[in-house]
Design brief:
Rna Polymerase Sigma Factor, Chain: A; single chain; seven-stranded mixed sheet; 337 residues; Nuclear Transport Factor 2, Chain: A
Length: 337
């Protein structure tokens, strides 16, 4: 009986030790895979492998390093034979409202997906490390990572985001320091062409952004299109995965809102956070006082202007991911979990 109790206690302790790393591992796998669901699957497989092989863990590295090695191998295997996860802008030039058609939706595996902050950013930790964790799950940065070969992607994340040394990274990948440094140099060159950096966009929702978000939500719910377009950057983009269609510029986006987007009038917006950025769950009116989930709008903001409205329209997938209902009764209040 004593042995059974001791065994149960040991299992409980191991589970606690592994779970302590779940959030940061999910953030790592999300950067690698570009999908919240794939990242969750990768981490679950990592935990299962760690549980099964823990008796072989010799302690020559830390438990954290060992888990990252497993997670890296799982992610690299999942990436074999896959194309990069895309954004609508990867498919061709911007459309105009006069010629715009949504077309046929692409499957889930095509798109870079958003992720709830709570899945990928630890609740506590060193403020500087948390800031980097937040910046490095921004859509623009994760989209840029998709242009890297899988091993280069791992090297860049380990070295630039997690601040591992070249020697630590080489040991994890079963490689050499020279090979790691070469891969990092190539990865940096590719990312430079994509433009985003870890410093882009700041580290939190600043006070001026909070005021912009308040005004945006108010204008959108009143459907004051003139006010909405004044908050858009001159090169602002509106995209709508799972469709290829995207529009650029306040004039075109404004025309969309008063044209094909007109049924959004009367929408309700619920504030959330996604990818370290402000976002809104948009519920469109049904006509009977209730509202239906329509889009998860993730906003990218630069210099006090909205540069990108990422309107993810796959609500059946996206809203449950953020703990949001698909339907709101009249007067019903909701917050993301």
């Amino acid at each position: 009986m004593t042995e059974l109790v001791a065994g149960a206690a040991a299992e409980g302790e191991l589970e606690s030790m592994l779970e302590k790393h779940r959030v940061e591992l999910t953030g790592y796998c999300y950067r690698m895979l570009g999908s919240a669901f794939d990242a969750e699957d990768a981490v679950q497989e990592t935990m299962v492998r760690a549980w099964k092989s823990y008796d072989k863990f010799e302690g020559r590295s830390s438990l954290r390093s060992w888990l990252y090695r497993i997670a890296t191998n799982v992610s690299l295997t999942m990436l074999e034979g896959r194309g990069k996860r895309a954004r609508p802008m990867d498919f061709g030039p911007a459309a105009t409202v006069e010629t715009a058609t949504l077309g046929e939706p692409h499957g889930e595996a095509t798109w870079l997906q958003p992720i709830p902050d709570a899945w990928a950013i630890p609740a506590e930790g060193d403020p500087a490390e948390l800031a980097v964790a937040r910046e490095s799950i921004r859509l623009a940065f994760v989209a840029a990572l998709q242009h890297l070969p899988a091993r280069q992607r791992a090297v860049l994340i380990l070295r630039e985001v997690l601040q591992w040394s070249a020697a630590e990274t080489a040991e994890l990948l079963g490689s050499t320091v020279a090979s790691v440094n070469s891969a990092l140099q190539r990865a940096r060159a590719t990312l430079a062409d994509q433009q985003p950096t870890l410093a882009e966009g700041g580290t939190a929702v600043a006070q001026d952004q909070e005021e912009l978000l308040r005004r945006f939500a108010d204008a959108f719910e009143r459907y004051d299109v003139e006010s909405i377009v004044t908050m858009l950057h001159e090169d602002a983009v509106l995209s709508m995965p799972p469709y290829e269609l995207w529009l650029q510029g306040p004039a075109e986006i404004g025309k969309w809102y008063v044209g094909p987007g007109k049924p959004c009038e009367g929408s309700r917006l619920v504030p959330i956070m996604a990818n370290g950025m402000p976002a809104f769950a948009q519920y469109r009116p049904n006509g009977d006082g209730s509202h239906e989930a329509w889009a998860l709008q993730v906003l990218e903001i630069t210099d006090g202007k909205i540069t990108h409205q990422n309107a993810f329209l796959d609500t059946a997938t996206m809203f449950p991911l953020f703990g949001l209902p698909l339907h709101l009764e009249p007067g019903e209040q909701v917050t993301a979990s």
